[in-house]
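Protocol check, entry for the methods section draft. Step 1: assemble the input record (protein sequence plus ligand SMILES). Step 2: submit for complex structure prediction. Step 3: store the structure tokens unaltered in the notebook. Ligand used here: flavin-adenine dinucleotide. Step 1 record:
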Amino acid sequence: MASNPSEGLIGKRVDILDKGWIELVDILPNPSTGISADLAIVNAARVSFMGESKGPENDKKLLFYLLREKHTSPFEMCVFKFRLHAPLVMLWQLVRHRTASLNLSSGRYVEFKEDEFYVPDVWRKQSPSNKQASLGEVEFEAGEALTQKLIQHYEAGYRLYEEALQQGVAREQARLFLSGFSVYYSCIMKVDAHNLMHFLKLRMAEDAQYEIRVYAKAIYEHFFKPLLPWTAEAFEKFVLTEKA
Ligand SMILES: Cc1cc2nc3c(=O)[nH]c(=O)nc-3n(C[C@H](O)[C@H](O)[C@H](O)COP(=O)(O)OP(=O)(O)OC[C@H]3O[C@@H](n4cnc5c(N)ncnc54)[C@H](O)[C@@H]3O)c2cc1C
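Step 3, stored output:
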């Protein structure tokens, strides 16, 4: 039976940013089949019975061929389900990836907690050349002062949120007092390996916003690479090097 790198990774959680995390909830192929995710992709391309293999050398060669030639549908046979905890500034961008299935927690159902706001480590400066991007950091003392002001701003907003709730205002409206982009939400994301590679290429790139880039990199390093070592190798060779 082929060794299965997915064993032990389900349930693994990685901390990200100040209060965020990502956890692998489930994967297809199920580890109990004993089929590695790379092999499941190869087997799908061969439209064969689970577990049938022509030996690691031939299997890996076929997988590289598939990705190089953009025969991507076999990669959709491998599916990841993650649970994420991330500030809205990140989720705002994540939801644009329509090929992922997402379920988000709702501030209409549950009250936000006071300590669930993103406080960045550093303040990045506006890039002079790229209108969307940041470049370099605000100097330490000025940054510290801004951070204190941000925390005070969160506290003041949260007091108003509580006040509105106490006056009987609905949670869906009381949240208008909160600092929208900073609040942490929980979310479940299901995505197949083909579309995850597309997401990773876009969001691990240096021009992606730091707050989503760290999640993309964590997905890649802690989950994608260990689960799909051959696919990761082919991804770095054929996809990451390709101009968008
Ligand atoms: C650096 C960066 C900056 C960005 N800036 C902005 C911005 O300023 N404003 C903004 O609105 N967005 C912005 N985006 C989001 C971007 O436009 C995409 O919405 C996002 O990256 C998702 O990519 P996607 O559509 O390829 O992925 P998915 O939605 O996962 O789709 C994957 C692929 O499926 C196909 N597909 C999916 N849905 C359709 C459809 N309806 N019709 C045809 N084909 C489809 C396409 O081939 C697509 O590439 C930015 C993204 C990045 C990485």
